[in-house]
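S1.2 Input.
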Amino acid sequence: MSKNDMHVFDDLDRRLIAILREDGRAPISKLATILEVSRATVQARLDRLLDNGAVLGFTVRARQDHGPDGVHAVMMIEVSGQSTTAVIRRLRGLPELRQLHSTNGKWDLVAQLSAESLTDFDRVLREVRAVQGITNSETSILLSSV
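S1.3 Output.
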């Protein structure tokens, strides 16, 4: 199967991905125990999911209440013409970008941003607004989780 082929997930694939979303560092032996299959089966499934691009990699999810409180915000972004791919590529290079989503309606992209201070946040906003292809944005700072 090539990376361009659509992968059809079965129940085992979905369960494996769900576990990895919670603990991307879980050892193969632990995954095998939870899924009640052999380690070889887990390794083969994981290799296939990585090879065909269904799983892109592994990451650390940090708790929001650990480390500096910082500033967290959601930015709605309007992109001009056919520049969406270039804008996405540029935004992904920002270390303060936590998530980026395409959407429909007035806004083309929704970005979740975090910065250590208001000064850093101001700098990030200027950097995002300077990206070629971004025509408009609206940012809301997240005050508290409810």
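S1.4 Remarks. Helices lie at 11-22, 28-35, 39-51, 84-92, 118-129.
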